[in-house]
Cell division protein FtsI/penicillin-binding protein 2 (Anoxybacillus andreesenii), 722 residues
Amino acid sequence: MVNKQKKKKKRTIPIRLNILFFVVFFLFSILILRLGVVQIVYGNDYKREIERTEDITVNSPVPRGKMFDRNGKVIVDNMPRNAITYTNFGVSQDEMLKVAERLAELIDLKPDKVQERDKQDYWMIKNPDRAKEKVTKKELDALKEKYEDTKEYNKEVYKLQLDRITKAELNELTDKDLEILAIYRAFSSGYALTPQIVKNEDVTQEEFALVSENLQYLPGVDTTTDWERSYTFGSTLKTVLGKVTDSNEGIPKEELDYYLARDYNRNDRVGKSYLEKQYEDVLHGQKEKVKNITDKTGKVIETKVISEGERGKDLVLTIDMDLQLEVEKIIEEELMKAKQSPRTGLLDRAFVVLMDPNTGDVLTMAGKQLVRDKETGKTELQDFALGTITTSYNVGSTVKGATVLTGYQTGAIRPGTVFYDAPLKIKNSKKISSWKNFGNTSDIRALRVSSNVYMFKTAIEIGQGHYEYEKPLPINKKAFDTMRESFAQFGLGNRTGIDLPNEATGYVGPQKDPAQLLFLAIGQYDTYTPMQLAQYVSTIANGGYRIQPRLVKEIRDPLMESEELGPVVKEIEPKVLNRIKLQKGWMENIHEGFRQVTQHPEGTAYKKFIGATYSPAGKTGTAQGFYDGPQRNKYDEPPEVMNLSFVGYAPHNDPEVAISVVVPWAYQGRSGGHSANTTIARRVLDKYFEMKKTREENKLNQNSTSTENQNDEMNEEQQNEE
């Protein structure tokens, strides 16, 4: 029995071992098969995963936002155009050059941007052996001893080679070489993994198609749609709308750190002046974000779109472009007409600002300037709307409303105060007077007839002075600060706060002798911009609120593939900068004085505004000064000139529009043959109310037509039901 049991045990052990060996063999077979699949089928994929070293996110630029006028008309748009780009994926110089040579066979690119240094570099790339021969072994040994750092050594060797390339050698470069160089220059001027414009001007359909068909032979090259700014109304307001850098300029050097910190690329186009710059954050849009995954060599393994791009948000301006065009036309006509008058050789510009005095909306911002073309020698009118905020002038009697109110505030005068208007004579000074002796004159009449003497005597009272004929005039010099601070409440001599950079404040006269205080009171000492005048008269029109002028009223989301306005993102609310402290009767007297200027037979603008149905109010200005314009270098002493101005609003009892007109250097001498300031003002206000009436009538007709159509539809439905 014992022997039988032993035999059974001996048989059982080999069977178990066999089963174990079989299981192990089976498992190893599966493992080997799996390893084979991993190595053979997925080996390259896993190898790439292991070799991934960096995820680089690249921002691709998108078109800028558009600009619309207050009525929804497009002012600034983006014009699409074909473009050829290159993205450097970390390839070598030789590889880049080969691609440039292939691309040169497909497109024409003018080498006009190629510099001397570019040619030298390219010559050395093409002639490496000849370049080496430019530096002797002795010189190389000397440089090695001098520069231990390899980079410094190579830099000095390269510099010597460049300096020794002759003009004859550079002339060896053919036209084809220069074209290849121009393309290579565009390639190498970009940044790693950032698309760089190679050509986006005059790309023909044939070029675009050829490059598109051969992209597999042009690594890094791509065809795309680029854009450029287009202006629906030509040069109108172009100086105010501003400029955008092109793809070659990229970000200005002085602002590079600012924009790079805000996720811009170095070659991004940005607004570089005025509205384009002021609203860059809004207009530049949401870039497309693309992640490039590279291996250890810098080669791109995979590209993923992280987020889709969206063009910039749109701006709705306060400007009424139809009105702007009409105002510009009026300025041009009256400027050219005035030039026919005697002694107007220095007259070369005129400005008009129309503003809503209750909101600060700038309805028109117009300026025209006569400029001689250097090439043709002909004189032509150019847009100079920017001059309404960047240039300042003596504006004369238009500031007298501020002078009277300063008199009220300081207690120098009160409503109804009467001064005798007769010439004044301060010791060692010329006699000064109004344009006519008016006798006893009240504050309201002083505004109506534009009495200088009334303003002189008000200023003397503000300065706590004592006037006697042909005697010295003692005054408190603090009166200059008092008057200027008071004027600043209206915006005179102050930045208006308009949403544009580089606004001028005007010139502040340096002297503080008594005579200058009197001239300050009549607008013939400090200088003011046309925009400051518009803010000043708006402050009077609305009862004492200084409103910040604004050019942008809304920011809107873009509607892709549409010319219509998208939903409102932000509405720019009117902003009150300060309120003038007033007592009962003060502003009412100013309003009445301004009304009488245009509606009383004695008013200085009465003849010009006879028959105006919109009840205007305003103040004329004529400032005697000295010419300081572009032709001043022609004279040993600046000639005496007169500046003409006008400020006003309408209707006088419920103002909806305010106006400032400035015509600098209207004529030489103290009298002239034209009144362009009031002529322009009358024509512009007439046009404003004419257009308003036409629009209201059109709106009524549209509503009537719409109602009739609705009634017709209802009648048709009833008939169908019956």
Q: What stands out?
A: Residues 4-9 have pLDDT under 50 and may be disordered.
